[in-house]
Each structure stands twice: as structure tokens, then as C-alpha cells.
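Long-time lurker, first post. I've been practising inverse folding by hand and with some scripts of my own, and I keep getting stuck on stretches where the C-alpha cells seem ambiguous. Below is the full C-alpha cell string for one chain I'm working on. Before anyone asks, I'm not after the true native sequence, just a reasonable design that respects the backbone. If someone could post their per-position residues I'd love to compare against what I wrote down in my notebook.
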């Protein structure tokens, strides 16, 4: 199959490598010279375009499958809206107007759209309740994807980690605020998208590993594995009392849920890293070698 990955970054590059290894032809779309170089280094075909500039999408070839994995660069809700809502709509319109439109679109979303569930379990059937401007943008983008005039899938990623994103110091040095972690290794985030494409998975797919874990438990496990003292802990009340949080950060701290991967497992996806215990092993080994 011919696959176009719009916003071929952290997950997109790994997705491209997996799809190429499986025999697919992959085009990675980026807007910067550095991004295009990364696409080429991954063995993919680089094409320059920007989803926020719809005229540039004419340079992107036709595809059987389109993956929208663009990033807003960690900026605020307005930037997110330009990329995830307007940019996604631009992409849908551009490909829908072609003589050979794609058979499937996959949009990569976030479990942030669920909002707060007081530590309870959520799955694909759970009603969305985004609590920040940015997560409301992501929920709106899901509507754009699911209303596309071709088959579409929304993959809701839990917290991504993996090469260059282990952030060990964040948990080893502390202090660590209570709450749940829902995580997925980059390779499995990409693997789940590949799985959704190759198996024609419709609608929504929650992409998270087997074991949501409390931040305190994770921090103590990581410290023990790295051979260091357990970090200082803080309750949510203590962290909020510091008074130095933005409103968005405050809402994130108050948001608690455990994400279920039952549908992904039932469909037959096999994780490379079923839990953080396997996924963090390379980072732990590297840390212990360096200390």
C-alpha cells in the first residue's frame, strides 16, 4: 500500500519504519529541513508540506492510507486548533477531492479527551469530557476525522515514552505528585496505528499498555531499578497549595483515570512492551552504566 504520514515525527517515523519493513511504500510529510532530513534518514520518501497551508498539500502524492500525526509543537490551544482541527480538515478536503481518494484515514489523538474520572477505568465507549481548551480542540478534531468521506480511525494515545523521551530524572529526582500514569511505548503507539491500517479497524481505538500505575508506585519502582533512593512524594493538595500552576496545569493534576486496552487486545494486537517494566528496561540499563 501507498501510505502518507502527515507530520512524520516521533511516532510517525517509527510507524514509517514498521510499514516499510512490512512491504508498504511510505511518504513522510514534514515542513522543515530538519524534519525532511529525519524522514530520509528513516528510509522514507520525504515531501515538504504544511497542513495549515492547504495549497502545499498538492505536492503530496495520492495514497491508499493517510495518517495524520502532526504536532502543534507543545503550544497552546490556538496553535492546536490551527493544526488539529483546521489542518486536519484541510487534509481531509484535499484528499477527498482527488480522483483516487484514500481508503482510510488514521488520526492520532490523546486520552486527554476523557477528562477526569476520579481514577475509574475508561474505554472507547466512555463519554468524553475534556477539561482544558487544548483537549477540547483534540475532541473536536476527532469529530473531523470520524466525519471524513472515507473510512477513518481515531487512535487515542496514552502518555508516550521511549527513546529520547524516558525522562528518568523527572521521577528519580522528584518530588512526584500523586495520580495515575497511563503509558504506551512509542514502538507500540506506531504498532497500533499500523495494526489499525492493516486490519481495517474502524471508529476509535484506545492505545495504552496493560498496566496503568500510580505515579508514586512507578517512581519507587524506577528508583529501585536504578539503584537510587525513592523520591519525595506530594499529594495533589500539597502541589496545588504551592500556587504556581497555570489553570491548564491545575486541571491536569486534578484529572485521574485508568485507560483500558481491552479492545486493542481483543482485536489481536500484540505489544512489544506490554508494561513499563519492559519498556523502561533499556533506559534503566543505560542509566546504571552511566552512574
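-- Answer (accepted) --
I ran through it position by position. Result:
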Amino acid at each position: 500500500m501507498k501510505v502518507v504520514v502527515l507530520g512524520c515525527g516521533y511516532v510517525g517515523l517509527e510507524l514509517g519504519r514498521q510499514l516499510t519493513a512490512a512491504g508498504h511504500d511510505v511518504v513522510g510529510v514534514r515542513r522543515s529541513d530538519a524534519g525532511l532530513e529525519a524522514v530520509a534518514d528513516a528510509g522514507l520518501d520525504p515531501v515538504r508540506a504544511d497542513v495549515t497551508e492547504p495549497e502545499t498539500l498538492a505536492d503530496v502524492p495520492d495514497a491508499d492510507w493517510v495518517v495524520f500525526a502532526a504536532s502543534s509543537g507543545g503550544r497552546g490551544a490556538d496553535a492546536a486548533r490551527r493544526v488539529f482541527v483546521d489542518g486536519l480538515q484541510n487534509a481531509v478536503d484535499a484528499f477527498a477531492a482527488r480522483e483516487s481518494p484514500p481508503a482510510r484515514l488514521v488520526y492520532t489523538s490523546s486520552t486527554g479527551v476523557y477528562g477526569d474520572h476520579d481514577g475509574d477505568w475508561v474505554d472507547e465507549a466512555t463519554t468524553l469530557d475534556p477539561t482544558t481548551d487544548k483537549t477540547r480542540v483534540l475532541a473536536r478534531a476527532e469529530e473531523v476525522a470520524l466525519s471524513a468521506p472515507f473510512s477513518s480511525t481515531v487512535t487515542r494515545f496514552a502518555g508516550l515514552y521511549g527513546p529520547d523521551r524516558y525522562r528518568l530524572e523527572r521521577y528519580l529526582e522528584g518530588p512526584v505528585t500523586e495520580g495515575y500514569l497511563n503509558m504506551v511505548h512509542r514502538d507500540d503507539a506506531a504498532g497500533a496505528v499500523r495494526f489499525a491500517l492493516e486490519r481495517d479497524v474502524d471508529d476509535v481505538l484506545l492505545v495504552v499498555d496493560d498496566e496503568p500505575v500510580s505515579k508514586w508506585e512507578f517512581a519507587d519502582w524506577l528508583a529501585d531499578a536504578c539503584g537510587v533512593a525513592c523520591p519525595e512524594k506530594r499529594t495533589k493538595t500539597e502541589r496545588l497549595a504551592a500556587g504556581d500552576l497555570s489553570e491548564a496545569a491545575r486541571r491536569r493534576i486534578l484529572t485521574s483515570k485508568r485507560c483500558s486496552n481491552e479492545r486493542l487486545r481483543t482485536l489481536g494486537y500484540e505489544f512489544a512492551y506490554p508494561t513499563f517494566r519492559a519498556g523502561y528496561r533499556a533506559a534503566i540499563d543505560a542509566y546504571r552504566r552511566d552512574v
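A couple of notes from the structure itself: Residues 7 and 71 are 7 Å apart (CA to CA). The longest strand covers residues 104-110. Happy to go over any region you disagree with.
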